[in-house]
């Protein structure tokens, strides 16, 4: 059986739903194909929402432990894991129901099954019972997301190790946790379990944690974590893994030094979920295992677009949503021949990336090195939170914020910060970058006093 649509979206996460919703809202005949047994997508089911729910509890436990710094005598907090899981299930269930409701009422056709391209204009959709049907479309958006990458460490697959997909269900709070990987997922989980009461050791292959961030940001996060007991072993790669009597033993180094823990988290990144999709039959180009897209979310095949973690060089949800919307608009622009209309675009250079470690770390736009790689003459300005009113009040000891500014024009190119609440506080800079504001225009913007967001005015004033 064959069915034809204007647009078929493959993948029902944040990017796919955004693409299908946008195209349907513009009057297109749209189908969305989703293979997952449970609707909702990574962000809601196994990513942002459950992880930040757990992190909120960890942060509150940490705040209680540190209450003495604010003149409060408080007993050691005790976690009721069952009540936390109940809260987690209630919140995630509500988020999922809202998304499913939108998927069923936004005007596109929802098709359940696994998709595989048979040609550039046709996919086969296989149901769980093995039956298949053909679905044709004039254009496609691929938004299949990502999955945890598990390296081939000897013995690992024979053990009950965790990935981030497991952590968000809070299997338990181990006395000792060993984290393999020091990137975004690894460090968020390390700070999560430290807050909940675990003793955490992180194995970092490189010389420092958080390789995608500037060294000074990573160093601040590491210092804060180490002061609370998180142990980071730099230049340390996991060797063989053994599991017996409920304990993990992981060897490292040439001498086979063993590290023992009650739980093992493998957090070595995520990979695009493209297996079985048959992109070769459609002629879609890949690079480093990721679909290649441009600023219009277009792939190497004119009528096939892609969005989200399967394609984005910056795999964050808000950018995935934007890419999905851009892909849908440009697909319809192509189908309707409205080439006189300007194409929609997403902008990598204005991307915002935040980590909910303790303290939080955030990057918006370009770093100084990135600006110079783009051939721009730029400078960096910085101010510490422990030299700012609200920063001192909340007890920030490692926080700071910095701005990257183009010489001559004094145009804002990027920003970064580490400290309490810095992700929320950085949306003002996201807007400033979007509006292509200069440092002088930021200086003219009044910030309420005393607030953490006021740190940006302090950074701007450091050039005076």
What does this molecule look like?
The protein is an alpha/beta fold. The chain has three domains: 2-148 and 272-336, FAD/NAD(P)-binding domain; 156-268, FAD/NAD(P)-binding domain (3-Layer(bba) Sandwich), CATH 3.50.50.60; 359-461, Enolase-like, domain 1, CATH 3.30.390. The chain has 15 helices and 23 strands. The chain has helices spanning 14-25, 42-45, 48-65, 81-105, 164-167, 184-196, 215-227, 279-282, 317-336, 368-373, 389-394, 422-425, 427-434, 439-443, 455-461; strands at 2-10, 30-34, 109-112, 114-119, 122-126, 132-142, 146-148, 176-180, 199-203, 231-233, 238-244, 247-252, 257-261, 263-266, 270-272, 286-287, 290-291, 304-306, 352-355, 360-365, 378-384, 400-406, 412-419. Strands 1, 2, 3, 4, 5, 6 and 18 form a seven-stranded mixed beta sheet that branches. Strands 19-20-23-22-21 form a five-stranded antiparallel beta sheet. Helix 1 links the parallel strand 1 and strand 2. Helix 3 packs antiparallel against helix 4. The protein is globular.
How are the SSEs ordered, and which strands pair?
Elements: E1 2-10, H1 14-25, E2 30-34, H2 42-45, H3 48-65, H4 81-105, E3 109-112, E4 114-119, E5 122-126, E6 132-142, E7 146-148, H5 164-167, E8 176-180, H6 184-196, E9 199-203, H7 215-227, E10 231-233, E11 238-244, E12 247-252, E13 257-261, E14 263-266, E15 270-272, H8 279-282, E16 286-287, E17 290-291, E18 304-306, H9 317-336, E19 352-355, E20 360-365, H10 368-373, E21 378-384, H11 389-394, E22 400-406, E23 412-419, H12 422-425, H13 427-434, H14 439-443, H15 455-461
Parallel strand pairs: 1-2, 1-6, 2-3, 6-18, 8-9, 8-14, 9-10
Antiparallel strand pairs: 4-5, 5-6, 7-15, 11-12, 12-13, 16-17, 19-20, 20-23, 21-22, 22-23
């Amino acid at each position: 059986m064959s069915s034809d649509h204007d647009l078929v979206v493959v993948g029902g996460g944040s990017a796919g739903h955004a693409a299908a919703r946008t195209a349907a809202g513009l009057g297109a005949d749209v189908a969305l194909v989703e293979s997952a047994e449970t609707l909702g997508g990574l962000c809601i089911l196994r990513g942002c929402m459950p992880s930040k729910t757990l992190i909120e509890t960890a942060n509150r436990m940490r705040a209680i432990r540190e209450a003495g710094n604010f003149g409060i005598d408080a007993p050691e907090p005790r976690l009721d894991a069952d009540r936390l899981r109940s809260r987690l299930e209630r919140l995630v269930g509500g988020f999922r129901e809202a998304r499913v409701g939108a998927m069923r009422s936004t005007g596109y056709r929802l098709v359940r099954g696994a998709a595989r391209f048979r040609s550039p204009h046709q996919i086969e959709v296989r149901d769980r019972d093995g039956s298949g049907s053909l679905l044709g479309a004039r254009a496609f958006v691929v938004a299949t997301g990502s999955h945890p990458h598990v390296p081939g460490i000897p013995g690992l697959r024979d053990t009950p190790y965790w990935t981030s997909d497991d952590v968000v269900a809070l299997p338990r709070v181990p006395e000792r946790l060993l984290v393999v990987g020091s990137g975004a997922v690894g460090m968020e989980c390390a700070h999560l379990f430290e807050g909940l009461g675990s003793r955490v050791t992180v194995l970092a292959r490189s010389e420092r944690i958080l390789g995608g961030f500037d060294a000074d940001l990573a160093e601040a996060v590491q210092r804060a974590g180490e002061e609370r007991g998180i142990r980071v072993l730099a230049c340390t790669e996991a060797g063989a893994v053994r599991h017996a009597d409920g304990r993990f033993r992981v060897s490292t180094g040439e001498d086979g030094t063993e590290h023992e823990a009650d739980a093992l988290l493998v957090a070595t990144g995520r990979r695009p979920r493209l297996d079985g999709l048959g992109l070769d039959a459609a002629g879609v180009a890949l690079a480093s295992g990721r679909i290649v897209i441009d600023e219009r979310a277009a792939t190497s095949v004119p009528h096939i677009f892609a969005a989200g973690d399967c394609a984005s060089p910056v795999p964050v949800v808000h950018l995935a949503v934007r890419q999905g919307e851009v892909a849908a608009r440009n697909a319809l622009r192509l189908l309707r021949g409205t080439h006189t209309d300007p194409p929609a675009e997403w902008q990598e250079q204005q991307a915002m990336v935040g980590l909910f470690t303790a303290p939080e770390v955030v990057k918006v736009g370009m770093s100084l090195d990135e600006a110079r790689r783009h051939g721009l003459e730029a400078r960096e300005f910085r101010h510490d939170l422990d030299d700012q009113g609200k920063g001192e009040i909340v007890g920030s000891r490692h926080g700071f914020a910095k701005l990257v500014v183009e010489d001559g024009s004094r145009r804002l190119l990027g920003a970064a910060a580490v400290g309490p609440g810095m992700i929320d506080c950085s949306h003002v800079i996201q807007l400033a970058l979007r509006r292509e504001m200069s440092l002088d225009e930021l200086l003219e913007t009044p910030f309420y006093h005393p607030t953490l967001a006021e740190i940006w005015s302090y950074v701007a004033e450091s050039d005076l």
